[in-house]
Structures
1.
Amino acid sequence: MLEIANLEVVYHSVVLVLKGVSLKVPEGSIVALLGPNGAGKTTTLRALTGLLDIHDGDITKGSVRWQGEDLGELGAAAIVRRGIAQVMEGRRIFPDLSVEENLIAGGWTRSKAEIGAAIEGFYDRFPVLGERRRRQAGYLSGGEQQMLAIARALISKPRLLLLDEPSLGLAPKVVAEVGAMIKAINAEGVSILLVEQNAALALELADHGYVLESGRIVIEGSATELRADRDVQEFYLGLGGHAERSFRDAKLYRRRRRWLS
Ligand SMILES: Nc1ncnc2c1ncn2[C@@H]1O[C@H](COP(=O)(O)OP(=O)(O)O)[C@@H](O)[C@H]1O
Ligand SMILES: [Mg+2]
């Protein structure tokens, strides 16, 4: 179980980006973290993986606990060894390396034999990667690159996988394939924190969801509850009368409606 409590993050000692975020990822579940560009989703993941340092960010309040242990003081490598892996925004594969070399690069916490066995396992489960094992990764399609990035993160055998906008820039059919891959990984017991702007996809996959706006969680609930929530429908699923409105307004709009009712 991952538990983030009242987390505040500041960049360059001055810019407060997370203003008291709390969320949980129960063992074995898929949890969606939704929200517009700039809300602080990637920052939340950086706080989990020890990567704030390299962006001159700091946790100034609150805590991140994983299976009871405080991750705040651990470095990025120690966190990977604890069983947390991340696929960063924008599919950061190595374009000049082959598919197989990319997978091997993900295995720095494991022995050669373990890496070999894990890679063969992937080729069985995701045959596209097997067929393209010798191909230079930069020549794969966007969807294949995303699958490769996810597979590479799995080589470290994580218990918790953090995905930062895996559907970004992918065609709808490919989004469905990546969605199926995420489901399959979860079915094998890996918990998933799924950051997405594609709320329809995320709420289809997730058990539970949170909406982050300007560094605060403004809506939280089961995926079923969120799909039925009027603000989520209007601002994140593009349903209802105000789909043309920027979803940046969801929080204000919600407040105003509460005030009017
Ligand atoms: N290294 C950084 N230094 C200063 N501000 C940053 C840095 N990284 C992100 N930010 C700011 O923090 C806010 C949240 O960014 P981010 O976490 O990337 O949001 P999201 O992933 O939801 O789009 C944005 O206003 C962004 O400009
Ligand atoms: Mg982001």
2.
Amino acid sequence: MDFDILWQTCKPYLEKGRPIDLAHTRISTDFAWRLLREGIKGDEDIVIPAIMLHDIGYSQIDDKDVYMKTTFPDKANAQYDIHVKELHLTEGAKLAEKILKELNYPARLIPPIVEIVRTHEDLQGNKPDQSNMNRVIVSDADKLYRYTAYNITSGMTMHHRKSEETFRFMFKNIDTWLCLEISKRIAIEELRKLPYDFGQINKELF
Ligand SMILES: [Fe+2]
Ligand SMILES: [Fe+2]
């Protein structure tokens, strides 16, 4: 499969979703490729479409506060909205199926991809089914984005958090959010690249 055709098809939807969706999806796709290249046993024909399509459902939600409600819920009077979160899974699954069929993607690969899109986030915050390595890779690639400068910077801006406080929060959650050991190492690598003074914690990083 030429994944570039799929990516070009996803782009207008991602631009229509949350302001971060295009960059988030592109960067998470890069992480998914890296995990596959590091030797994690996944099927790229399932993993790559699933990560490209995972958040496409936000394009179908007509709510001006969707980003705040699902990403930074304690700001701008935006309450965390589990319904919106759920909707991006169900709408995303429907749209993913439609796009893959229109692109004549191999029929046998569509159900496992759609299933990952539909379940990529657990609304209770539980980790994914560890027996499905494709799903684990998508989950880790999605969450690794949180460790990039993009997310850390917007987190600090939106929450007015200090760099050390943000850093401790991210550091503390590595084991909670990520499944694979390689993903945990990549998260640390990303944190190391950030040009902030993390105070005491810098000593633990370098
Ligand atoms: Fe999502
Ligand atoms: Fe995501």
